[in-house]
């Protein structure tokens, strides 16, 4: 039912978003956006975005959050925090970007061919499995998933870096991995993203 | 971690009598990737590291600004946000872990400048880096979003340290502009453009090398310089060194001890020009 309502109306998706953003410490500042555009002007990658950060908030207010989630915008955020430190209303835009990334993945709305969600998921898989991440396992799994042929292009650089001791080959597995799993399993927060009823994940399980 | 950064950090700290001990069984901080999937579990990763450091009654010193920001964020929320604290505490309890909030999270650069200080650093100088023009590159997350170490956009802490060891930091307006971070893997065109801007600025300011304090910035600026040149028809050939490598040189360590020949763009001609004796 929840899923249906989200599909039927982007407003419902907006409600989920707002609920989560209010849950982020200082997240309620989002309502104070004055559409000045300082965020967009400060963003090093906004020139390549479908919606700039300012437009992203405007689109959310206009009930078009689904369009933002499907766009390339959130996946071009590199977490440089320039927008966050310059926003005259104190809006934590970088943290909002994280929330949007989580929602896009959770509700299966990531743009086709976007590589950033693939990296994020692989990164999390390796951390969950080992507790640490080394470059080679991450990059090789990533290349296999996104561009198997492109992997060949990377061989010369990889070889040079390996020779220079700059390519750790395996992720070390920490002893505390069971401890981390136990803690994660005991997490009680009812509505943190990744756990919304009706989300893509929920449906699969 | 990058071997060169690791090696040079170890020898410089030893020379400065900073007692570094690797945190036993530490886990990844999750960086920006984990936060993009699950908010509270990402904080849990940081929380476990804080717990481990507290057990050893130590502060956490990191050399990666992303670790700094991630760990600091969790530490702040644990101190200031009761609902957040409850969630993390409950989940830590499941493994009999507890955090009282005593750990400070610091970047090594800040420890050296604020704790060790000018006199101690200068007292260990054995070689002159005189006249070496360097672009001090801070990247994003050393000072953003918290700004506890220095100004969020125009910090000078690294500039000061470089002056102490005899180098000449150039005025570098792009010192905190983003290198793209992980975008180099996912949106290479955009990331290469950001690095072109940084390299171009360094060149215009006549910097002979770029000094970094972050392994990912170092990777993007150094390893991908050839790709920048290919894409934009430029001819950048600017070596990039970690701040710890430059310090180590000034302290008299050899290139090998500092992992200096590990770069793709050799700094040898440059260092031979400026240092009296080379390794």
Give structural notes:
The complex is a heterodimer of chains A (205) and B (279). With 205 residues, chain A is mostly helical. Helices cover 56% and strands 0% of the residues of chain A. Chain B has 279 residues and is α/β, with parallel strands linked by helices. The longest helix of chain B has 17 residues, at 39-55. Chain B is globular and about 60 Å long. Chains A and B meet through helix 6, helix 7, helix 8, helix 10 and helix 11 of A and helix 2, helix 3, helix 4, helix 5 and helix 8 of B.
Summarize this structure briefly.
The complex is a heterodimer of chains A (205) and B (279). Helix content of chain A is 56%, strand content 0%.
Task: Tell me the number of structural domains of chain B.
Answer: 2
What's the quaternary structure here? Answer: heterodimer
Radius of gyration of chain A: 19 Å
N- to C-terminal separation of chain B? 24 Å
Discrete helix count of chain A: 12
**Span between termini of chain A:** 16 Å
Uncertain stretches of chain B:
none
Order of helices and strands of chain B: HHHEHHEHEHEHHEHHEHH
Strand order of the largest sheet of chain B: 4-3-5-6
Write the topology of this structure.
The complex is a heterodimer of chains A (205) and B (279).
Chain A: H1 2-8, H2 10-23, H3 38-42, H4 53-61, H5 65-70, H6 82-86, H7 93-106, H8 116-130, H9 135-146, H10 150-163, H11 177-185, H12 200-204
Helix pairs in contact in A: 1-2, 8-9
Chain B: H1 3-15, H2 31-35, H3 39-55, E1 60-62, H4 65-80, H5 82-93, E2 105-107, H6 108-123, E3 133-137, H7 157-164, E4 168-169, H8 183-186, H9 188-204, E5 209-212, H10 215-223, H11 225-232, E6 240-242, H12 243-250, H13 268-274
Parallel strand pairs in B: 1-2, 3-4, 3-5, 5-6
Helix pairs in contact in B: 1-12, 3-4, 3-5, 4-5, 6-7, 9-11
